Amino acid sequence: MTLNVEIKRYNPEKDDAPHWESYEVPADPLDSALALLLHVKWHIDGTLSLRKSCAHGVCGSDAMQINGENKLACSVLVQDLVDNDGATVKFAPLPAAPVIKDLVIDQSRFFEKYREVKPWLINDNPAPEKERKQSPAEHEIIEEATKCIMCGACTHACPSTWASPDYLGPAAMLKAYRYTFDTRDDGEGERLDTVDSENGLWKCYTIFNCNEACPKDIDITRWLSALKRRSAVTA
Ligand code: FES
Fold first, then answer.
1. 3-state secondary structure of 32
2. Which of 65, 84, 112, 227 registers the highest number of CB atoms within 10 A of its CB?
3. CA gap 37, 145 in Å, rounded
4. Is the model's pLDDT at 235 over the cut of 80?
5. Any idea of its EC number (predicted)?
């Protein structure tokens, strides 16, 4: 089939504002959406800018808006987007972030928020000779949250992020959950101080956009609700 691929293009050195450009791209239903973009870049217009690395849903670098939904371009198939010859597939950068060029957003703010929740194990006790142990049952509490690949699809799908750029967002707060509920961690107090704040947990209105956007099917809203309960109990 041949698809009409529309890409929101923006080159700050030349353009006053982003604009849509269309390309005719040959495609197989089993191609990834990323393959469509790479065809444009390699065969039609080498100036197209996008991020990608692993192409297997691991690195999280190619999160973008595809037909209006935040997805990893490498992890969605053409057949899941369109079913007829000549159909249109639209690509745009993730919303609510400054665009550096074309599909590449500036992630500085996203990672600043991530660092704010101290996404590392806080434990000042001397490390045991081998490792800080955790039972399978203890690990299960945080296991799903450890699957986050920090692609940003969730945070940039959240209306609270769109309305309040300083909102910590689901990705950072999921990381706060992951360490706060880690039985080896002693940083609960300082982490809860960060998330139990004006731009933290209570701006999550359980809209579930984050769950729908997550390419790893993490039940983010559930874990943020657990963090809210922990925060309310310890306040
Ligand atoms: Fe790594 Fe898509 S390129 S997740």
1. strand
2. 227
3. 30
4. no
5. 1.3.5.1
Residue in the block written with tokens 């986050």: 148
Instruction: Note the Cα 82 to chain centre separation in Å.
Output: 23
- 216 CB less than 6 Å from ligand 1? no
Q: What is the mean pLDDT of residues 198-220?
A: 97
* 131 C-alpha to ligand 1 centroid (Å): 31
Which fold would CATH assign to domain 2-105? Answer: Ubiquitin-like (UB roll) (3.10.20)
CA atoms within 13 A on the CB side of 186: 6
pLDDT, position 118: 97
pLDDT tens digits, one per residue of 2-11: 999 999 999 9
Residue 97, pLDDT above cutoff 90: yes
Interval between CA 75 and ligand 1 midpoint (Å): 8
H or E segment at 2?
Answer: strand 2-9
Ligand 1 atom nearest the C-alpha of 51 is 3
Q: Which of 50, 59, 77, 214 to mutate to test the pocket of ligand 1 (most atoms within 8 A of CB)?
A: 59
Query: Mean pLDDT throughout 79-95?
Result: 95
Ligand 1 contacts CB of residue 35 (under 6 A)? no
Spatial separation of the C-alpha atoms in residues 217 and 96, rounded to whole Å: 22
The stretch 12-21 carries a mean pLDDT of 96
Choosing among 1.10.260.40, 1.10.1060.10, 3.40.640.10, 3.90.245.10, the CATH entry for 108-234 is: 1.10.1060.10
Nearest atom, ligand 1, residue 55 CA? 3
